[in-house]
UniProtKB/TrEMBL annotation:
This is Amidohydrolase. PANTHER family: AMIDOHYDROLASE, BLL3371 PROTEIN. Belongs to the metallo-dependent hydrolases superfamily. It comes from the Bacteria. Keywords: Hydrolase. SUPFAM superfamilies: Metallo-dependent hydrolases. The lineage of its organism: Bacteria, Pseudomonadati, Pseudomonadota, Betaproteobacteria, Burkholderiales. The keyword Protein transport does not apply. GO terms for molecular function: hydrolase activity.
Length: 325
């Protein structure tokens, strides 16, 4: 099966600064100390190529068994990566354009197979110089959008930024610059923030929004948390300019199985439809909890009953259209 992976990260710790990897620790997403090493395009392609081999690595056996349990007569699926989208890796905020410059050089290199085919760059939309930053990002041919992490949570364990950007007038005013530079916005937030995001999407109907990680169902273990996530997703899905990436699920389910992921995957697809939903890996972060083949096999098992056209949308076509690749 051909796949497009619309959510990957690369980092070169030898030549670039990533503050969160300077002194990583253990958090809800796992032990980030295991991520403190270079993850270059060759490393990512090696992970992806293993998913296309006839013999999946030993580490994938558990997820493949889960998939087989769902469809006992199926042979192991092979996945051929054809395109990828790089999402900002929380590069040095003092020079966010340097990451884009590096990624463009990677994509232009002979060994990258043209990847990343699209770049979603980092920018602080509250900064005084944000228009200059956006213009500099947009000057690179593979730039397609911007991500600024917005996650705020009452529990310090889950809080990323400690600041409600969407409530700030200057931030919202600068958000309008994205349309000027033909940039989409990767929306990373928690369910409690979704009502504010709905307002933002309605205020900016010509800017494409892509919800990251299926809305990050952080409080999923309570009925109230499930409803807040489900209802928030459906409110966002009612905005025609909003799509969603089904990714990052392992950050909240470290011992995941096909069955533990199934309700979240199906609920997300039901809300957005296959034309506005796409599978993604969040590698190498989700690599902490399983192999590349394991993850994509789980997705395939969950939507095993979908039509060929529906699968093609989820695994490839939606990402190609949304990110213009």
């Amino acid at each position: 099966m051909k796949i497009v992976d619309p959510h990957i990260h690369l980092w070169d710790l030898d030549t670039h600064h990533y503050p969160w990897l300077a002194n990583p620790g253990v958090s809800f997403v796992g032990d980030a100390r295991a991520l403190k090493h270079n993850y270059l395009i060759a490393d990512f392609l090696a992970d992806a190529d293993a998913a296309g081999s006839a013999h999946a690595p030993e580490a994938h056996a558990v997820a493949d068994a889960n998939a087989a349990a769902t469809n006992p007569t199926a042979s192991p699926e092979r996945f051929e990566l054809v395109k990828a989208v790089h999402i900002d890796a929380n590069h040095d905020p003092a020079d966010p354009v340097e990451e884009t410059r590096w990624l463009q050089s990677v994509a232009d290199g002979a060994a990258s197979r043209g990847m990343p085919n699209a770049i979603v760059a980092g920018a602080d939309l509250s900064a005084d110089n944000v228009e200059a930053v956006l213009a500099a990002h947009a000057a690179f041919p593979n730039t397609r959008g911007i991500r600024q992490i917005l996650n705020v949570h009452a529990n310090p364990l889950y809080d990323y930024v400690g600041r409600h950007y969407m409530r700030e007038s200057a931030w919202r005013r600068n958000f309008g610059l994205l349309r000027k530079y033909r940039l989409s916005f990767d929306l990373q937030l928690y369910p409690s923030q979704m009502p504010e995001a709905v307002e933002l999407a309605r205020e900016n109907p010509h800017t494409p929004f892509i919800v990251n990680h299926a809305g990050m169902f952080v409080d999923r273990d309570t009925p109230l948390g499930w409803r807040a996530w489900r209802d928030g997703l459906r409110a966002l899905a009612a905005c025609e300019n909003v799509a969603v990436k089904i990714s990052g699920l392992a950050m909240f389910d470290h011992a995941w199985t096909v069955e533990s992921l199934r309700p979240y995957v199906l609920e997300t697809i039901d809300a957005f439809g296959v034309e506005r939903a796409m599978f993604a890996s969040n590698f190498p972060v989700d690599r902490l909890f399983g192999g590349y083949h394991a993850l994509w096999s789980a997705y395939a098992a969950i939507v095993n009953g979908a039509s060929a056209a529906e699968k093609e949308a989820l695994f490839r076509r939606t990402a190609e259209r949304v990110y213009r690749i």
